[in-house]
Amino acid sequence: MAASSASAEAIARLQRERKDWRKDRPPNFVAKPQTLADGSSNLFAWDIKIPAKPSSIWAPGRYAATMTFKPDYPQTAPVVKFKLIDGKPLFHPNVYEDGGVCLDLINPPESTHGYGKGGTWKPTLNFKTVLLALQTFLDEPNMGSPAQQAPYKLLKQDEAAYKKKVSEQVAKVEHCGLDDGAE
């Protein structure tokens, strides 16, 4: 497939997903294209916010990230990076130092993370699926695929101390309250 037709397909798909998202957005989630200097939307780069589940140790936080799409989306998965919190990455075993996410759903097929298998992305999935998976990801670290050693080791050795470190980050992020109605 030519690059221009791949981009056209990706743009059409992202426009459709954005329309569907606006009609059926889960509470407290945010996903919107970044704005370019000319005021237009960049459908290939989105600002997202993932709310922790109410019962989560990450609650009531809402975690800012970026989601970028390649011109051949949906053939390839989006790339997600959590924004740093006071200059530090999210204190999670499966978040890299740069905020990148090690999540089977969006790992590339050639990935050898975890148990040596590649990612599970399929073109039938969409960005809403990724956002919901990220919410679950907060509470269900894959201990077989650590991206950051400090949270991995602490969670493995002293869960109470891990939860304390998480609560310190929760205090520094935006908190969920009433749904803000954002895109």
Structure description:
It comes from Chrysochromulina tobinii. This is Sumo-conjugating enzyme. GO terms for molecular function: ATP binding; transferase activity. The protein has 183 residues and is α+β, with helices and mostly antiparallel strands. The protein has one domain (3-170): Ubiquitin Conjugating Enzyme (Roll). Helices cover 32% and strands 15% of the residues. The chain has five helices and four strands, in the order αββββαααα. It has helices at residues 3-23, 113-116, 127-139, 149-157, 159-170; strands at 30-35, 41-51, 62-68, 79-82. The chain has a four-stranded antiparallel sheet. A hairpin with a 5-residue loop joins strand 1 (30-35) and strand 2 (41-51). The longest helix is centred in the N-terminal third of the chain and has 21 residues, at 3-23. The protein is globular, with a radius of gyration of 17 Å. The protein starts with a helix and ends in a 13-residue tail after the last helix.
